[in-house]
Structures are given as structure tokens and as C-alpha cells.
Amino acid sequence: MKQYSLLFLLALTTNLAFSQTVTLLSSGTKTSLRGLSVVDDNTVWVSGSNGTIGRSTDAGNHWEWKKVKGFEQTDFRDIEAFDSNTAVIMGIDCPARILKTTDGGNSWKIVFEDTTKGMFLDAMDFENDQSGIVIGDPIDGRLFIARTTNGGNSWEKEPLNKRPLLDSGEACFASSGTNVRLYQGKAYFITGGMRANLYYDVNKIKLPINQGTETTGANSIAIKNKHTFIIVGGDFNTKDSTTQNISLTNNAGNTFSLSTTPPHGYRSCIEYLNKNNWISCGINGVDYTKDDGKTFTLISNTGFHVCRKAKKGNAVYFAGGGGRIGFFKL
Question: What is the phi/psi pair of residue 323, to 5°?
């Protein structure tokens, strides 16, 4: 009897520990949102298909929606915001462009353009308000990379010989804007498709994650410190499969392990929160871990493409298909 009581209390404690869930703030449009940037607890920007940009300055209670003039057909897969007025958006192809606003999205200036055949931008990241990077599918067999040192006002393409040489059938997913991360001056890239690898410095590390088809591989990387990071992905054609959908390392990629209880399906994004806490999302729900990824608990069945924590604050926001935007408070 005491044993059953103990098991009940443990189950109750676990349930209470994850009693927080995701609150849906916006949904119902035809726009697919994959770009998300959270400046602080109140200031949030999103970007997506059909040239759509959204901005809230009151913690998601009200949203200002715009279509970027002249780019109504563009899919803006990633966005980086610096304050309530300043942001950079990434249009993936035809041609590949990056735009910047300094007036809250009322007007935009093209700050990067590439008409090279096969150009397809996948993700951006900024380490601070000045230093940023954008990556794209391979050109001439090498990952496309461009960098900015002035807040996205201009971009310089990385020399071809400094870009990673990818294997045949290996590329990046433009699923959440988080398959590249800048951390302490280093750029970390992950890939998928026929091969899934982690690249940083001169390192190329094969990932123990689902790979071998066009829909498999690594989708997102989050970094806690120079030793500890988590990579998620899987197969977006089998959204509920937990087979090799995560890779954990606490020694900078020298070795990787899998979770005892992995996220509950394909995951397109992972975000480090604080202490040993991380959050991950995909098209079938949201998972939370309090032990650096060893065990995940499903906290929402609502699907999202991307989740990001406030740069200055504790709020976590989500964005996904059907114009969905969610909120979670630590």
C-alpha cells in the first residue's frame, strides 16, 4: 500500500511540475510562420509565407500584421529583431534576399540579394546586435554562408574555400531558422537529408540521428555552453516517430547519446532556457526537459514550427502553421 501511495505521489509531483502549458495567442490564417524573434517579454516578431510579418509589443495580446510591399509572394522563413522598430528578414529564393526595417515594418530595404541559380537560404542567427550569419543550400557542393558585422546593413559572402564541403544529398532544412547558431564567436551548422552532420571550426561530426532520405536529418541545434548542446530532427513525413530524433552531447560533440525518453515525434526546433531546462516543438506538439534532455515530457499537443526564448526576459513564444502563435512563461 505504501509503495502504491509513493508511486501516486511521484506521478502527481511530475504532473504538477509540468502543469504549465502553451497558451495559444493567435491562429486561423493561411500563413505558415517559421520565423520568430523575441526581443524581450513584450516584443515579438514573426515572419512567414505570402510576404507576411507580424509584430506585438504587448506580450502577444495584440498583433500588427503587414505584407511587405513588393514581396507578397515571398516566404520569409527567418527573422531577427533587435527592438520594437528594427528587424531583419530572410526571403528564401527567387532570388534570395535579406531585408531590413528600422521603422517597425512600415518600410523595408534590400540589404542582400543573390540571383545565383539554386540559391536557397535556410536560416539566420545573430550573436549580438551587430554580428550575424546566414546559411543556405550548397552551391558548387559547398554550404552557402554570408556574414554581417553591422547589424545586417550589409552582408559579405564567405569565400568558397572556407565553406564546408557537403556530401551528396546533404543540405539544410529551412524549418525553424535554428540549424545555425553563433556562440562565443563560433558558428555551428547542422545538416540533413542523405547525411546528417554537425560542423564547427574545422570539425565535421556525423550525427546519430535519423538520416538517409530527403525528409530526414537534423533540424535544430541549441547550445547551453561550449560543451553541452542538443540537436533535434527526425523525419517530418513521420511526425509521431521517436526513432533517432535527438542527439545529446556534453563534450562538444566528441560523443553523442540519445534520450531515455525522447521528444514525442519529429521536432523542428529546440531552445535552451535556463539551468537544465530546454523546450522543443514540432508539428505534433511541444516537449519540455528539466534534465538536459535525458527525459522529455509532452506539455502540449498543439503543433508549432519554431520556439524561441526572449533575449531579455523569461517568456517563450512559438509560431507555426495556420498562423499559430503560442506563449509559455518560465
Answer: 70, 20
In a domain, 253, yes or no: yes
CA distance 211 to 207: 9
Residue 97, C-beta contacts closer than 8 angstroms, at least 6 positions apart: 71, 74, 90, 91, 110, 112, 113, 114
CA 197/CA 204 separation, integer angstroms: 7
Q: Is 236 inside a domain boundary?
A: yes
Question: Model confidence over 111-161: pLDDT tens digits?
Answer: 999 999 999 999 999 999 999 999 999 999 999 999 999 999 999 999 999
Residue 219 C-alpha cell reads as 533540424
- Does residue 91 lie within any of the structural domains? yes
Residues in the chain: 330
Q: Per-residue pLDDT for 18 more than 80?
A: no
Number of domains forming the structure of the chain:
1
Cα torsion at 8, 17, 272, 191 (round to 10°)?
Answer: 40
The predicted model scores a pTM of 0.94
Residue 139: all three cell numbers together: 552551391
Cβ atoms 249, 235 nearer than 8 A: no
Show the cell assigned to 161.
574555400
- State the CATH number of the domain containing residue 86: 2.130.10.10
Q: What's the CA dihedral at 293, 242, 317, 11 to 10 degrees?
A: -60
| Cell numbers representing residue 124 in the block | 539566420
- Alpha-carbon distance of 79 to 312, in angstroms, equals 17
Q: Which domain holds residue 258?
A: 33-329
Position of cell 502543469?
Answer: 19
In terms of Cα–Cα distance, which of 12, 42, 88, 122 is closest to 311? 42
Q: Nearest 5°: phi and psi at 52?
A: -90, 135
Q: Which residue has the cell 493561411?
A: 30
C-beta separation of 68 from 108 below 8 A:
yes
CA distance 124 to 147: 9
Mention every residue, 6+ apart, whose C-beta is less than 8 A from residue 1.
Answer: none
Residue with cell 514540432: 282
DSSP symbol at 4: H
Task: Judge whether 25 lies within some domain.
Answer: no
